[in-house]
Structure to design on (379 residues):
């Protein structure tokens, strides 16, 4: 009882201190109280960019400031007004917390309630924002599909835009370092969001999301534009530094995933599943232990890939046409992997199961039918 009271008192004190700090920063930078549309500011312009048959907006904003919490919210602020469009605020349905997060009303952006409680840095020159929400901070799939394709949109403009800096979610993971290096972006041009949560800029560019085009995540995940896989292939598929690794049968081993996360998405009879796959000469691949280019090479040379739904399937973009893919998933998992497989003309099969324990729509503990798995592999 005494401990719970102490915890409650600690929270009250922490919230009080936060409010004091927020008030201090409001005195320094002013209070953001209003949301405006892009055409309501002379400092904002929109460039229309065509990719295949899709039209994307590239927002160009002059002389403003940028704030992000690095996870759910990012705000483009001009004259203490938040700009709808290039700003985002990711929220789940309040009545259904396991629902996918969509871009909510700009009126819910965190800066309207908490201000911009970080010391503002000053960036001289132009910036391209590649931020895409917290998932892109450390997730391989979101990095390849949510972050990097924004560069493709930028490349497709009629006027050649070469930003001085790149605002990125993170640069601490090997695949982030490798991909940016392969794209010819030097380290001294990178602004990782954890170090640049609040800054002023001369000029910033922000694109529409590459595949969340209807703001209905469930729909958009099943309709990934073909051009994303095509662009990834052109940029990364044939590189001299990759080893020639020829593994024909792959099981994507998730033992390298953080145990806290992995406990929410796992196969309850995985030991039996592994025994079956060993008998038919599968190799167990922990992708986090393999370089980006070698991952590409492994998937390119594979004949069949089996795995539990996860970020490693992003590498399907690098498979040869006709490669067999078996995705093991909860029957409520969104069909984003299936969409990528179709884009790349792969021989895809999903094994759907009711979770024994469901934590959210993409996570759960499932038991795999070994007979179904063996049949999917052989046919």
């Amino acid at each position: 009882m005494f401990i719970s009271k102490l915890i409650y008192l600690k929270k009250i004190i922490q919230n009080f201190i936060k409010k004091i700090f927020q008030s201090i920063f409001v005195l320094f930078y002013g209070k953001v109280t209003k949301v405006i549309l892009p055409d309501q500011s002379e400092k904002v312009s929109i460039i229309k960019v065509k990719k295949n048959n899709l039209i994307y907006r590239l927002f160009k904003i002059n002389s403003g400031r940028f704030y992000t919490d690095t996870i759910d919210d990012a705000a483009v602020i001009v004259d203490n007004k938040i700009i709808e469009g290039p700003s985002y605020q990711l929220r789940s349905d309040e009545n259904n917390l396991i629902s996918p997060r969509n871009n909510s009303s700009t009126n819910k952006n965190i800066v309207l309630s908490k201000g911009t409680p970080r010391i503002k840095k000053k960036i001289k020159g132009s910036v391209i924002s590649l931020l895409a929400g917290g998932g892109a901070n450390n997730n391989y799939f979101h990095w390849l599909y949510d972050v990097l394709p924004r560069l493709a949109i930028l490349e497709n403009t009629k006027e050649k835009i070469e930003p001085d800096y790149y605002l990125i979610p993170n640069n601490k993971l090997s695949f982030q370092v490798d991909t940016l290096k392969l794209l010819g972006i030097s380290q001294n041009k990178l602004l990782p969001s954890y170090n640049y949560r609040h800054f002023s800029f001369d000029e910033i560019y922000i694109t529409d999301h590459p595949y969340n085009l209807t703001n209905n995540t469930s729909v958009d995940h099943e309709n990934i534009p073909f051009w994303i896989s095509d662009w990834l292939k052109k940029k990364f598929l044939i590189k001299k530094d990759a080893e020639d690794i020829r593994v024909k049968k792959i099981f994507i081993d998730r033992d390298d995933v953080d145990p806290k996360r992995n406990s929410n998405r796992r196969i309850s009879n995985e030991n039996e599943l592994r025994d079956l796959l060993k008998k038919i000469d599968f190799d167990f691949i922990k992708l986090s232990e393999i370089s980006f280019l070698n991952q590409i090479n492994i998937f390119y040379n594979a004949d069949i890939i089996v795995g539990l739904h996860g970020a490693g399937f992003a590498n399907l973009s690098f498979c040869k046409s006709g490669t067999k893919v078996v995705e093991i998933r909860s029957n409520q998992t969104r069909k984003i992997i299936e969409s990528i497989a179709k884009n790349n003309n792969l021989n895809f099969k999903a094994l759907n199961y009711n979770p024994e324990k469901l934590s959210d729509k993409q996570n759960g503990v499932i038991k795999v039918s070994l007979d179904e798995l063996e049949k999917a592999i052989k046919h």
Notes: The radius of gyration is 23 Å.
